Please model this.
Amino acid sequence: MGRWEPDGEGRLRMAAMELFAEIGYEQTTVAAIAERAGLTSRTFFRYFADKREVLFSGQDEFERLFLAGIEEAGDSDPMAIVAAALEGATAFFPDERRAWSRARQRVIDADPGLQERELLKLSGLATAMTDGLRRRGVDPTAAALAAESGVAVFRVGFATWIAEGEERSLAEVLRAVLTQLRSLVIAPQV
Amino acid sequence: MGRWEPDGEGRLRMAAMELFAEIGYEQTTVAAIAERAGLTSRTFFRYFADKREVLFSGQDEFERLFLAGIEEAGDSDPMAIVAAALEGATAFFPDERRAWSRARQRVIDADPGLQERELLKLSGLATAMTDGLRRRGVDPTAAALAAESGVAVFRVGFATWIAEGEERSLAEVLRAVLTQLRSLVIAPQV
Model:
């Protein structure tokens, strides 16, 4: 999902998403995607291993961005590192991508297999973040907690960002969610 | 995993776990489990749908306990409700169960399919907790955040509880992890 010019990859993404929405993910074939994009199946396979990868290939790039953020954050406090990584990763989701992300989510919500895949990807991200924090000297429990909290903030924030009518940028939403987590967690406990 | 007397179910659990440890989860058959327990395969299927359920059947009971805790918590603050539910759910993991839980985790860690299943169960728990909190009037974002944080605390705490050498009860560990989450999240952010 790196580029948004009407290049081959971009056209294939758009064609796939249209078809997923029109006739459903299961029913959509690679041949139909290629035809809709005015390209050949052979060209499709230059960009994607299969139709599922149209939905997931960008996530690797996103994960790399996220993990780079953990490595490069100037702070040493675990949650500050996570907050910086979240902030950095929002570069991957400019407002122009919101419509795509919203359509993608609709496809995923309709297919239990895709939901599992998404879940496993996010869980893998939490594990990779935990490792990244540990490499920065954070103790194992704090690293796991900060990573899991960061993924929770991302997940909740992302769902808010793609909700109908939401107009704030992902960065603004994530900051608000992080603030909400903070006030939730420090509320007086019984 | 309700009872620990040497009844049929308990004997089958123990026999299964021994075999999973000795020859591996994949290689273990229902017939071998039944034989080791001195019972028939037919008896096995009175208790479990398949060998995987030996590892997972108790989770439904645990999830019910957790969700009942959310419904019945006296407080109305979301994280206090989650903390009460966590506390209540520890009744399901007395110290006598620690050795079993540790052995179970070893089996799961060795098998990607079981890891996925575990992950999906925990994700389902977070969703059910979110719904439970919403039914108690918590707003959607706070409900999702509190539920995801609660599951993160449980996951990290449970891993700590079954670590070699750990002697605190699960309730003590979860309280400590919750305190650690609190201090992580309120640390001064850059």
Notes: Residues 1-5 of chain B have pLDDT under 50 and may be disordered. The two ends of chain B are 46 Å apart (CA to CA). Chain B touches chain A through 37 residues (CB under 8 Å). DSSP finds nine helices and no strands in chain B.
